[in-house]
């Protein structure tokens, strides 16, 4: 199963995260199938590859709880349902 989850990088106590698509059995910082965005919790900066995320969600990828909240704030799930309806 493909999961959308966070991959940690950065210095100690200054972590940033990449939003990635990865096999659910792979380790947290393992090699991703695709990098789909960026999240910095210190500045609340978020950059998303929305078409790539929508494509992965339509293929059945499951987001982690944290990634789900980030995507809900960016209204990505509305775009997924709009694509499915058309």
Structure report:
This protein is 33% helix and 38% strand. By secondary structure, it is α+β, with helices and mostly antiparallel strands. α1 packs across α3. The longest helix is centred in the C-terminal third of the chain and has 10 residues, at 76-85. The radius of gyration is 13 Å and the shape is globular.
Q: Could you list some keywords that capture this structure?
A:
86 residues; alpha+beta; S16 Ribosomal Protein, Chain: A; five-stranded mixed sheet; globular
Number of structurally distinct domains: 1
Q: How are strands sequenced across the largest beta sheet?
A: 4-3-2-1-5
Total helical segments:
3
Task: Note the beta-strand portion.
Answer: 35-45%
Mean pLDDT, as a whole number?
91
Q: In CATH's first tier, which class applies?
A: Alpha Beta
Query: So what's the overall shape?
Result: globular
């Amino acid at each position: 199963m493909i999961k959308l989850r966070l991959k940690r990088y950065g210095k100690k106590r200054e972590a940033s995260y990449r939003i990635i698509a990865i096999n659910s059995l792979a380790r947290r910082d393992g090699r991703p199938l695709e990098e789909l965005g960026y999240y910095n919790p210190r500045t609340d900066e978020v950059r998303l590859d929305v078409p790539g995320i929508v494509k992965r969600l339509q293929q059945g990828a499951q987001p982690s709880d944290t990634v789900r909240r980030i995507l809900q704030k960016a209204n990505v799930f509305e775009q997924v349902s709009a694509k499915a309806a058309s």
